[in-house]
Amino acid sequence: MIHSRVINSLGYAGLLPFLAAVWAAYAELSFGAWSAPHLFLSYGVIILSFLAGALWGKAKELEEPNVGRLLLIGSNVFALTAWLAGLLGRDYLSAGLLLSMTGFILVYLVEHKTRGLQQQGMDSAYLKFRLTLTSVVCLAHLAVIALIQ
């Protein structure tokens, strides 16, 4: 895959804010008016929106137009899900975090399901990489949820 070193580096570096926010939540740190769990959720919303946008780009590569249309619609649904998670998180933090985590899982499942439909294909190394990232992000979500209970 082209740019795999950069993709991997950015992907793993993208986990650092999640992990730092888990640590900050454990240490009960706050940053001005922002608690660590709220910062965690706000970062998650940004990353989930980014992944939703990436699905938009992948839809152009699909040879199957019906699946491409569904992927375009799905990318918008995931972006709106991220937005709703952020809104929910203001007053219902656990619900926002659960919705965010669900969005991450569903984006991965969509990528996995559509991998064979892309013109150039999505190699198994990329899907393993995405599964690792998604797993760490979901575990981090669960850790924050446990810490705020």
Describe this structure in words.
- The chain is built from six helices and two strands; from the N terminus they run ααββαααα.
- By secondary structure, the chain is an all-alpha fold.
- It has one domain.
- A two-stranded antiparallel sheet has the order 1-2.
- The protein is globular and about 50 Å long.
- The N and C termini lie far apart (42 Å).
- The model has no long low-confidence stretch (mean pLDDT 91).
Query: So how many helices?
Result: 6
Total number of strands: 2
* Mean pLDDT across all amino acids: 91
> What structural class is derived from the secondary structure elements?
mainly alpha
Write down the Rg: 16 Å
Total count of domains: 1
Notable characteristics:
single chain, 149 residues, mainly alpha, 6 helices, 2 strands, globular
Précis, in short:
The chain is 81% helix and 3% strand.
Secondary-structure topology with pairs:
Elements: H1 4-13, H2 15-26, E1 30-31, E2 34-35, H3 36-59, H4 65-91, H5 93-114, H6 124-148
Antiparallel strand pairs: 1-2
Helix pairs in contact: 1-6, 2-3, 2-6, 3-4, 3-5, 4-5, 5-6
